[in-house]
Amino acid sequence: MPLTAAHWxxxxxxxxxxxxxxxxxxxxxxxxxxxxQGIVDVxxxxxxxxxxxxxxxxxxxxxxxxxQRNGQDEFVSIGWSEATKLVAGELDRVRRQHGNRAIYGGSxxxxxxxxxxxxxxxxxxxxxxxxxxxxxxxSYSLAAGEVILSRILGDAASFIHAPQSWHSVAESTELLVxxxxxxxxxxxxxxxxxGYHRTVEGLRQARDAGxxxxxISPNRADVSAELEADWIPVRPGSDVALMLGLAHEIQNNxxxxxxxxxxxxxxxxxxxxxxxxxxxxxxxxxEWAAGIxxxxxATIKALARRMARSRTMISVGWALTRQxxxxxxxxxxxxxxxxxGQIGLPGRGVAYGYGAANSVGVERRQxxxxxxxxxxxxxxxxxxxxxxxxMLLSPGAEYAFDGETLHFPDIRLVYWAGGNPFHHxxxxxxxxxxxxxxxxxxVHDYCWxxxxxxxxxxLPCTTPLERNDIMITPRDRFVVAMKAVIPPVxxxxxxxxxxxxxxVELGVEDRFADGKSTDEWLAWIYEESRVxxxxxxxxxxxxxxxxxxxxxxTDLPKDPIDVFTAFxxxxxxxxxxxxxxxxxxxxxxxxxxxxxSLFPFPAWYEPTEWLGCASSDxxxxxxxSQPAEKLHSQLDHGRASQSAKYMGRTPLTIHPKDAFALGxxxxxxxRVHNSRGSCLATxxxxxxxxxxxxxxxxxxxxxxxxxxxxxxxxxxxNPNVLTRDGRTSSLAQGPVxxxxxxxxxxxxxxxxxxxxxxxxxxxxxx
Length: 766
Ligand SMILES: Nc1nc2c(c(=O)[nH]1)N[C@H]1C(S)=C(S)[C@@H](COP(=O)(O)OP(=O)(O)OC[C@H]3O[C@@H](n4cnc5c(=O)[nH]c(N)nc54)[C@H](O)[C@@H]3O)O[C@H]1N2
Ligand SMILES: Nc1nc2c(c(=O)[nH]1)N[C@H]1C(S)=C(S)[C@@H](COP(=O)(O)OP(=O)(O)OC[C@H]3O[C@@H](n4cnc5c(=O)[nH]c(N)nc54)[C@H](O)[C@@H]3O)O[C@H]1N2
Ligand SMILES: [Mo]
Hints:
Helix content is 27%, strand content 18%. It is of the alpha/beta class and 766 residues long. It has two domains: 565 residues, Dimethylsulfoxide Reductase, domain 2; 136 residues, Barwin-like endoglucanases (Beta Barrel). A hairpin with a 6-residue loop joins strand 20 and strand 21. Helix 8 packs across helix 12 and helix 11 crosses helix 12. The mean pLDDT is 96. The site of one ligand MGD has 34 residues, from strand 24.
C-alpha cells in the first residue's frame, strides 16, 4: 500500500475502486496518531468543494460588496477558465490601482505536509512573480517567544526546536519542571510530518530512568498520569510571578551560580535589583508570588530548594506565550535556569516546550533540506501575523513592534491558501467586521469551512492523497515518498497548478514554474536535498531507489543535540548572537526601545484578564487549548473529531464543584459568554482542572449567528468568539488567546449547528 504523510504522521493508504477505504499506521511508527482517520469519510464527502466558486453577490455586483457576517452567502459554481481569469483580473486591477502592497498574501496557516505542495510556499512564490505582497511575520504558536528569544539568545528557531533530546533527559535529568505541562495530545503533531512519534516513549524512558516530573499548570492532565508528576496548580497567566518567587528564594539562600551568571549572562545585577525590590519597592519573595499565583509559599520554597539541589531541566510551554505579556515566561524561565547555572550541561537547563510538538526533543540529524524557492518579495510591508484585524480596520495607523515604529498598509485584496483565520484569530466578531474591508478575498481550500464560506472566489484544491509529494523536513528522521492514491476529487487542482494557471494569464508562467512539471520539481527538491544532506554527512539513497522503497530513515546523531553546548564549552569562541554575546537577562536591545515601556529584564505585569483581576466579575478563566483529535480546524467534519463531540457540540470541561455551583448537570448545553461574544458548548465535568478554570479545545468550525447587539454567537463551540484580539506587548504584538475570562450559564433548547452544511450553490444564470 502506498504511503501518505500528514502533520500527524505517516500512513499507508488502502484504496478500493478508486476510493480511499482506510488509512493504516506506518509500520515504523511506535505510537501512530488516530487523527489520520479523520480524512477517510470526508475526502469525497458533501463538504468537499468540487468546482471553482464565486460568491453570488460579488459576481453580480463586483468587488466591495457586503459579506454576510454569519457566513450564509450564496455561491455560484463556475469553470476553471473563468475562475482563473477572474483571479488574474482582480490581482492586476488591485496592483495597478493601489500597488502590490495592497495585496495581503501572508496566508498564515498549517495547510498540509509535503515539501512541494506547501500552499504558502506556492502562493508566496507566485505573488513574488507578479510584484510582491504584504506579508506576515512570526506565528500564532509563539510569536512572543520568537521575538524575545531572538533578543536574549540571538536566535529563536534553533533554541525552540532543538532542545536536549529525550535520550539526554533520560540519561542526565533528575528533575523536569514543566510550566504548562507536556500534554502528549499535542505531540501527535510535527510540522511537515513525522514517521516516528517519540514523545510518549521518550517520557516513559525518562520515568523509568528515575526522572521526577513537576507539572505546573491549571490542569493536572497536562502531564500524563503514568509519569506520576507532582502537580502544582497555578492561576493561568501568573507563571512569571511564580518563577520570580522561585528566583528570589534561590538568590536569598545564595543557591545561584554567580560564576555562571558572570561568565555567561549579561545584566544579572539589574534583574537582581528588581528581584529584591530595589527597583520598584516590591520584594518578589515566595510570599509575594504565592499571593499572585495561588501556590502556597511553602510549596514555592520547597521547589526552589529542590531545583537548586537537582540536575534540573525547566520546560516552558508555548501556551504561556499566547497571553498578555507572553514575552516574559520564556525570558524569565531562561533567567531562572541561568541562576541555577546548569544551562548547556547534559539533561539540564531550559527547553522551550517539550510536548508542544513531536519535533521538540526528538533525536534527528539537523539537515536544512531544499524547499520550493520563493524568490524575494519586492514589497517591504509586513505585519506581525496576529495584527490582521487591526490592519484591515485601521489602515495607516501607527504601532510599535520589536523596537520599530510601523504603520498598517491599506489592503484591498486578501489571498489565502492553506490557513483558516476564522479558526485561528481571536475575537471573531471583530474579525468579521474587519473582513468587510477588503474589496476581494480569494481562498484556496478543499472543504466548505468557515473561511471558504467567507471568500469571494474559492478555488478548490486537492488534498495530499490526490498528489505526489515528498515528506522531507529537518524536524524528522524519516523521508517519505507521498503518493497520489486517488484522482483529484471533482475538478480540484493542486495549489501549484491553480497558481500556474493564473501565472499564464498574467504572463509569468515561465518565471513561476521554471519550465518544470510537478514530478520534475519533486525530483529537483530531492536531489538538492541530497546534496545538502551530504554536507551534513547524511546519506540519502538515489531518487529511483527512494521512490521504489517509499521511505528512508536517516541515521541518528552520535552526540545528543544541545544548542547551548558549544556556548557553554567556550563562550568566547562560540558566543551567542546577542549584543553582548551572552544570555541577556537584561536585554541591551529592549533597553534601547523607547516605546516598549517595559523593564529591560523579565518582570511581572498584571494581565488584563486573569483570575486575580479586580475589575472583572467574570468568574472563569477560559483556556482554549489544542484539540486532541485533530489539528486546529482541519478535519473537524471527520470522524475522529466528531466522535469527541458531546451532543454534537464541543465539550467545555469544568471542575464538578464549579458546575454544581452553577446548577449544571453533565452533558447540559451551556452558553459561554463575555463582552466579545458567546458560544454554545456541552458541560463535561473534570476534576483534573483547577477550580475557576474551564477548558475548551479550539477547532470547531464557526457557525455564527449575529446577535441583536452585533456580537456573534457560535452554535458549534468555536472559543475564538470569546478570546480577546489583544497583543502580548509592543515587543512581539503576538496573540493572547489564553488571557480570557468568561461567564457560563445553562442554555435551553439550542438550534442545531449549520457548521457542516455547504452553502447554497446556484448555477450561472439562475
Ligand atoms: N483560541 C485559540 N486560538 C488559537 C490557538 C489557541 O491556542 N487558542 N492556537 C493558535 C495556533 S498555535 C495556531 S498555529 C493557529 C492555527 O491556525 P491555522 O493553521 O490557520 O489552522 P488550520 O485549521 O490548520 O488551517 C489550515 C487550513 O488549510 C487548509 N488546507 C489543508 N491542506 C491544504 C492544501 O494543501 N492547500 C490549501 N490551499 N489549503 C489546505 C485546511 O482545510 C484549513 O482550512 O491557531 C491559533 N488559534
Ligand atoms: N493534537 C493536536 N496537537 C497540536 C495542535 C493541534 O491542533 N492538535 N497544534 C500544534 C500547534 S500549532 C502548537 S503551536 C502546539 C501548541 O502547544 P501548547 O502551546 O503547549 O498547547 P496548548 O494546548 O495551547 O496549551 C498546553 C497547556 O498549557 C496549559 N496552560 C494554558 N495557560 C497556562 C498558563 O498560563 N500557565 C500554565 N502553567 N499553563 C497554562 C493548558 O492547561 C494547556 O493544556 O500544539 C501543536 N500540537
Ligand atoms: Mo501553532
